[in-house]
Amino acid sequence: MGRPRAIIFIVCQEQELTKDEYHTILGEAKVVFSANLQETLGISAYEGALVNAIPMVPDRLSYTEMYDDEYKYPSKWTESFESYTKHKSKLIEKLKNYMQSHNNYHNQLNTESAKLTQTFFSGNNMYDAITKSDTPL
Does any domain span residue 84? Predict the structure, then answer.
């Protein structure tokens, strides 16, 4: 049967990765974790969801409205290093749960990434509003 693969946690921002290297790592990931205190639409979590990596995002910033509760953890768990230290065991437990049940998320991730694409990562709503507008630009 073989040995189980080692769990590796890669902080991509700390690496000097090419775009291809980043996409290769992302394609092998089971989870994309964010503890961002600021972000610009959370592109990495979305990219991960597109390739069946579970987004694990704080319940703050644009993540609050973008992601279903299933993928969010309480914002206070990572709002500072002190808070992270205090809640580290809860984060690890949630991360382990995602890793162990990753295969059960495939259908949910397809639905989540389709919702994200339609609602946040598509210009269709804007184009529709412009083309239906009676007001000239």
Answer: yes
Overall domain count for the chain: 1
For 63-94, the pLDDT digits (tens) are 999 999 999 999 999 999 999 999 999 999 99
Condensed to tens digits (0 to 9), the pLDDT of residues 8-49 reads 777 777 788 898 998 898 888 999 999 999 877 888 899 999
Note whether residue 126 is domain-resident. yes
Quote the Cα angle for 20-46-39, to 5°.
95
**71: closest CA among 121, 109, 119?**
109
Domain boundaries, position 71: 12-132
pTM: 0.81
CA distances from 100 to 4, 49, 54, 96 (A): 12, 17, 12, 6
**Contact call for residues 19 and 3 (beta carbons, < 8 A):** no
